[in-house]
Specification:
alpha/beta, 13 helices, 53% helix
């Protein structure tokens, strides 16, 4: 039996915020899907609260980050890592992304701290903060663009409401859904928004638009501002699709085939996903246990990195031995091969440190095994190393 609207509203909690991450290749239809989701939704799902049509805000990265910087996403050394964000050599592309996250964090904090969050007040605060603070030109540009985008969307929505009084009421009581529209081909990109959801006790879900590189290239060619074929092919090779087995936090996800993006069944399924996320917001860590958990996590992370490094060093040694035994490579070629193998090893180790790659838990697997019987942890690491070599 479907829940009544009142019960659903009660379960939405105080924040009533959902961060929905849209990910997929260029041309997969993310922006078109976002525009469809910005229409009326409650009619598509019987359990959605009547007269509480959510406020849907579309954060399209292409509208914020200059297009000439998009090619930076495919640089071998440009995978987003927390350690490089503080580096003086951080790329402009990463700086834009960092400022987008910072701005969303500010908006969520303002909504969370207000008993009756009114988005107009939030925008006024963001604008005032932007004008009063000594911030970088990129930060000011990002905030100005976000203000313009969200204000235009809010105004468009308000014009569709029947009466001004009901408009003001809904701005304070309706759930708020942020559609984060980006390729998000690295898991770490999506993890940043999961962290924000935990920090602000918001709902979190992912919408993955599955599309082959050939389909994406064909669809992308029809767009007015198409990206290069090379970019799509490289991104397809780097795509880390949402996978709960790889990361437990990626449990709330719907995968959509490109040909079914516009169907009513798809929209209904997506609103069901968003409603579930709203009713089950992510829980932040308990403050009294943070130090203890951080300590335990650090020990576990150290152990995992140690064993991954040991396995990868064996992989490098084995491949070098095989190459030498064949006797067909010159010293220069062997030196080049060694550099490539070690580069792949370092890249994979960094991904493990950043949690963009999560091996099977050590406590569930033996960390030692006979050479002819590798365990799951070792098999997982070896497979990842081979894949890293394929794309490097």
């Amino acid at each position: 039996m479907e829940e009544t609207s009142l019960k659903v509203l009660e379960r939405l909690g105080e924040s009533k915020i959902c961060l929905a991450a849209l990910c997929g290749l260029p041309g997969a239809g993310k922006t078109s899907l976002a525009e469809s989701l910005m229409g009326p939704c409650y009619r598509l799902h019987d359990g959605w609260p009547e007269l509480r049509d959510p406020i849907v805000l579309h954060l399209c990265y292409d509208e914020v980050i200059p297009r000439h910087l998009q090619m930076e996403t495919m640089r071998e050394d440009d995978a987003p890592r927390a350690t490089t964000l503080q580096s003086p050599e951080v790329s402009p592309w990463k700086t834009y992304r960092k400022e987008i996250i910072s701005s969303v964090d500010f908006i969520l904090e303002r909504i969370r701290c207000s008993k009756t969050p009114n988005l107009r007040d939030v925008y006024i605060d963001l604008d005032r903060h932007t004008r009063s603070q000594d911030i970088s030109p990129i930060a000011r540009e990002v905030r100005t663009k976000l203000l313009s985008l969200f204000q235009d969307q809010l105004m468009s929505r308000t014009m569709k409401v029947e009466t001004p009084s009901s408009s003001e009421c809904e701005l304070e009581t309706s759930p708020i859904v942020f559609l984060i529209d980006d390729n998000m081909f690295y898991r770490s990109m999506r993890y940043e928004y999961y962290q924000l959801a935990r920090k602000h006790s918001a709902g979190f879900c992912q919408i993955y638009l599955h599309c082959s590189s050939d389909e994406a290239i064909a669809r992308n060619a029809k767009r007015q501002q198409a990206v290069s074929m090379e970019t799509i092919i490289k991104m397809a090779g780097k795509m880390e699709a949402p996978n709960q087995q790889a990361a437990s936090w990626e449990r709330n996800v719907v995968q959509i085939l490109v040909e079914s993006v516009d169907s009513e069944d798809t929209l209904s399924a997506l609103w069901s996903l968003i409603l579930r996320a709203l009713m089950a917001p992510e829980s932040p860590l308990q403050e009294e246990n943070i130090e203890e958990k951080d300590s335990c996590r650090a020990v576990c992370a150290t152990n995992v990195i140690h064993w991954v490094d040991q396995i990868l060093r064996k992989c490098v040694a084995k491949k070098m031995t095989l190459a030498k035994d064949k006797g067909s490579m010159t010293k220069v070629e062997l030196k080049t091969l060694a550099a490539k193998l070690n580069s792949a090893r370092q890249n994979l180790l960094q991904q493990v440190r950043d949690c963009t790659v999560v091996p099977p838990p050590l406590d569930a697997e033996k960390t030692t095994s006979r050479d002819d019987e590798p365990n799951n942890f070792e098999t997982f690491t070896i497979d990842l190393f081979d894949k890293q070599l394929e794309v490097s």
